[in-house]
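Pair request: fold both.
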Amino acid sequence: MTQKLTPAIDTSLYPNRWIAVVKDHVIGVGLTPEQAFRAAKRTRSKDKPALLFVDSEGQVRLPQASAADWLNHHSLLRETIALLQNQQTEAYLVGGAVRDLLLGRNEVVDFDFVVPDNGLTVARRVANGLQAAFYPLDTERGTGRVVCDTPDGKIYLDFASFRGPDLESDLADRDFTINAMAMSLTGSPQLIDPLQGQQDLRQQYIRAVSPEAFRHDPVRVLRAVRQAAEFNFTVTPDTETYLRQAVTQLDTVSPERQRDELVKLLNTPAPGHAVRMLHNYGVLAPLLPEVEAMVGVTQSAPHYQTVFEHTLTALEVWPVDVEELGIPDLLAGHVRRYLNIEMAGHLSIAALMPLALLLHDTGKPLTRTEEIAAAETKIRFLGHARESAHLARQVMNRFRFSSQATDFVTSVVLHHMRPLMLAAGDKLSRRAIYRFFRDSSSPTCPAGVAIALHALIDHQATYPPGQGQTEGEQLRHVVVQLLTAYFEAQDQVVDPPPLLNGRDLIDIFGLKQGRLIGLLLSHLKEAQAAGEVTDRAAAIDFIKADPNFAHQQTKDL
């Protein structure tokens, strides 16, 4: 069965080759999947490409990797299987890892195993054999986790007891057929596929294991959409029917589980497509009414789409490497490291970016006005950023995100227009750069760089294709200055170390503790950032000349 690919890819250029594909781009080519994968990582280290084989006729086909070939690239898995066989333990690899085996994916970090019983005991034995960490996950279901540290990061091995009396019952209790396959680890690995998951994988279908799949766990409503977007698969008509019937049960799922699936959904290669599916299936309105409210809300030029469609376009722009946003090579490495910063709740800045994009215009339906001048209707959204930030905080709180993640997303949404305003003004000054980061960032909420990146994405989604280049260059120039200041002039422009502190003001000027000291120090810091004060003597003179200081001296006379 051939693979569906966008017409933008001319596969006839790659006969008898493996290609690494992200969205509609071939980013790596090789004679083997490993060569294509390595080539992709050299150019786009952040992305997780799909590996596909192009036959002699230029047709792309799903890889038919054997279990043995796949295991050769996972030394830790080979070692785990050897331990299980030495212990004469009946065990099966199941779920997403088997699916990814058949898709030719190499970057698997989560492996799920099932055993007839005593999953906790098996996990503990494997952890001891691998000299790895062990954690009980679910004592009631007998599930334990082994965490292995490798040069490429952590790998997780989960061991669970059967869901039911045997393996077939376990597989029948899973969500979708493509996730309901197992591999026997006794002797030569053998695929066990009672529900024809491999056939659905070839035909690129998301098919529920049973009509009760969503009723048993309504969070699968989100998972179906997420995996359809992640793999570019089609939800079968019967599965769509079951999904729609289960939407009303989604509120029985804990906010934390909904949050985790939502984050994964927004971090697929096609987040805009995923959100559109949520809308089409009737999931978006109960899940995110703030986003559903944007549907059909029109805007004036330069916008050419409704607020909702603009948001989806922005989401589609996001999963790109930073160079594609016009970030110079000298800054790109800094930006990638910034995006990998982990916030509270084990979510990176990169993982939170699509949430900010999704919510950045949610205030527009509530602030929309129309003005008619010279027979032309002008649509305005005065104060929409503040209203959007208010709604974003509500959404983040509703899904129980950490306070740090909530503050971060709220700040990006609140200030998302600032870079555009700076680009519309005169030459960007050091003072303006300082104020931008002062207002938008803090040590626990470093949102300034994300706001700058958000502005570039927002701009690309605003203009029709081929338009807005001049405005885009002006904005990009401002963004580069902001990023340069943040990464290369932090101590000079963004956060200069104080030349005086509160104790100095008390000792030198005889001031009393209070609001005035904080006000004077904030004025001094801004003057330092602007390059107007460069040493301690100048700092003392600056304080003396501050009108607030002079006013206090007059009051004390």
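--- second member of the pair ---
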Amino acid sequence: MADLFDTLNERMDVLTAVRFGVTVSINGTDYIAVESDFFAEFGPVEGSGKSLVVF
């Protein structure tokens, strides 16, 4: 039997991908991804930035 935390984690990943995900093409391969913002106030970066969380 799978660990309950692992099961919950998988369900939340699927839900996030379905609700917020968009299809992006990286090197000719399509992936589902969501945007993530970096704020200068929260880390050692200067200025804001964006990244993709790929599922």
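Observation on the second member. The beta strands are 22-26, 29-38, 49-54.
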